[in-house]
Write a structure and sequence with these properties.
By secondary structure, the protein is of the alpha/beta class. The protein is built from 12 helices and 17 strands. α7 links the parallel β6 and β7. The protein starts with 23 loop residues before the first helix and ends with a strand.
Length: 408
């Protein structure tokens, strides 16, 4: 996430709560709720529960219908060591503050994922000796909170450290194996070309270890981006990188791709208002991407007049907005309708008249995905898809996605 994440305060957790020692399944049995649909974990925006003027999660849920939150960040202790902390300062084993936030969210039918890493700070992949010890540290987090989802936010300075990234990817693979059903996302910086050299090296490390998470997400901001068009272009290019790295086709790559944006003013002074979020949301849903999230809910509110001086804040967006407007885009990605919104009706395709001589296939739909060999009827003709396509009406063009099979 953005450089504002380096502003991690020293808020201390209070009280005592012993960390569990069993795996996810046992954690669930001890009182953790049933998992949400993975689409909610894929849509969960980031929330710092101890820093950057934490908002009331319950109020956000009531106002938007949001069910999932991405809590940030788990780091190594500031003094070194291979034990998990919140922000490098708050001990996981004695935490009650974050646990209280989680309890509030779950009492309202929601759930959380926890993000490890982020921009700045010392990461456990840097301080733990190998993948197994790194995984053991993260397992403490999963077990303590009964997690069904976890996010590996791999960026500066850690993702420039080959050994650390090997530990992180190895740990992610171990956690995935030891916690069946665990939703795992991997988040890394984005560039105009999709992702940079270190991001590509991280993908190659994942390939070499045989590790496939639910998604690899890029953060297309803080890199000379200018609005939604530059972000969707980066997502398109990142898709090509996933294809070439893992041997996936386009649709499979999109099914393992995610977007993580920054609402409002970025650290680099770029602006991403609500209209840009809608454009990227449309891109993500139309391409059947796995994840759509943003940094952060702490920033999902308008700055006070005194703060509107063209600066980036960790606790407001620096753009005109009502509270929690950006959270509603996540709700839409999850497939829910935010309170007060009018659902968009699903258009009904015009039925194709039957022809007893050559029966018509199922009518073409702009929302359906077609792959090579799929057939559909349109304007009294049957058509066969030449390759993966969506929202491209059959027209008989030699360069189009459809082959005319004649009238029906």
């Amino acid at each position: 996430m953005g450089r504002l994440r380096a502003c991690l305060g020293a808020a201390a957790a209070v009280g005592l709560a012993a960390a569990g020692t069993t795996a996810l399944a046992a954690g669930s049995a001890s009182g953790a709720p049933s998992a949400l649909d993975n689409r909610w974990y894929a849509a969960a925006p980031y929330l710092m529960p101890e820093d950057n003027d934490p908002p009331d999660a319950a109020a956000i849920m009531d106002a938007t219908g949001l069910k999932a939150f991405q809590l940030a960040f788990i780091l190594a202790p500031n003094g070194g060591g291979c034990t998990p902390t919140w922000g490098g300062t708050s001990s996981l084993s004695s935490d009650t503050a974050v646990q209280s936030v989680i309890n509030t969210i779950r009492s309202k039918g929601g759930d959380v994922s926890v993000s490890i890493g982020g921009y700045g700070g010392t990461k456990l992949g840097q301080t733990c000796s190998d993948a197994a010890s790194t995984a053991a540290a993260y397992q403490q987090v999963i077990t303590k909170y009964g997690l069904h989802a976890i996010d590996f936010d791999l960026e500066e300075p850690e993702y420039e450290n080959t050994a650390a990234i090997k530990n992180e990817i190895g740990a992610a693979k171990i956690l995935q194996q030891n916690n069946p059903g665990l939703y795992v996302s991997v988040t890394t910086p984005g560039t105009a070309d999709g992702t940079g050299w270190f991001g590509k090296q991280m993908l190659l490390e994942a390939k070499s270890q045989g590790f496939t998470p639910n998604n690899f997400s890029i953060m297309p901001f803080d890199g000379g981006f200018n609005g939604a068009a530059s972000q969707t272009d980066a997502l398109t290019k990142f898709n090509a990188i996933l294809q070439s790295t893992f041997g996936w086709n386009e649709a499979t790559a999109y099914a393992h791709e995610g977007f993580s944006g920054m609402n409002g003013r970025s650290d680099a002074g770029e602006y991403f208002p609500q209209a840009d979020f809608q454009t990227v949301l449309d891109f993500a849903t139309s391409h059947h991407m796995d994840r759509y999230t943003f940094w952060s809910l702490n920033r999902d509110r308008q700055c006070s007049p005194a703060d509107n001086g063209g600066r980036t804040s960790g606790s407001c967006s620096s753009v005109a907005q009502s509270p929690w407007e950006f959270a509603k885009f996540s709700v839409k990605f999850a497939g829910a309708t935010p309170p007060g919104s009018t659902p968009t009706p699903t258009p009904t395709p015009t039925p194709t008249p039957p022809n007893p001589g050559n029966s018509c296939k199922t009518a073409w739909s702009s929302s359906a995905v077609y792959v090579s060999g799929d057939e559909a009827s349109y304007n009294g003709h049957n058509w066969k898809a030449k390759w993966w396509t969506q929202n491209e009406a059959p027209n008989g063009s030699d360069w189009g996605a459809w082959q005319d099979e004649g009238s029906c």
